[in-house]
Amino acid sequence: MGNINKDEILLMLERMEDELMLAEMERMAGMAEVGAAREDLARRADAALRSCRTAIGGAFSGSLVCEASRKLFDTHAGLTLQVRARGAEASLLTVSLRIPRDGDASLVAERTSGGMRYFSGKLALANGNEPQLAAALALVLERAFQAVPA
Question: pLDDT tens digits, the chain, 150 residues: what are they?
Fold first, then answer.
């Protein structure tokens, strides 16, 4: 390798700087895309949670209440609702909803103490508050509370 002059070194440094700036711009664009997808997922999860609370609160003349938690990940959101009779301390039903960034959501409803699953299936939740979610929850609540001894 022969002598490299000062101009060649400066040109190489400029190219390296351009490559680094391009890589940083691509990284930032990727982060923005992930952030937008996560924000959309959070919006869908919040809408689904509102739908769940509305369906549970309106069931059986308002005799049910729920405690809910929401977790947000890069790939999906998870909702867990503990449903109980108003005034009761023990939860009778656990409803879990997994909303992926892409594809159908999955809903599982089972007796909190285990042993009995009332519903397990996929739901298409474009906005999170699809009528399909409310209908599925109404069916779940009807099945679950018919099975509870008075």
Answer: 567 788 888 889 999 998 999 888 888 887 777 788 888 888 888 888 988 998 898 888 888 999 999 999 888 999 999 998 888 888 889 999 999 988 889 999 998 877 788 888 888 877 655 678 888 888 888 888 776 554
Q: What is the pTM (predicted TM-score) of this model?
A: 0.73
Is the Cβ–Cβ distance between 117 and 110 less than 8 Å?
Answer: yes
First to last CA, the chain: 91
| Bridge partner list, 93 | 83, 111
How far apart CA 43 and CA 66 sit, in angstroms, is: 20
**Using an 8 Å Cβ cutoff, are 123 and 104 in contact?**
yes
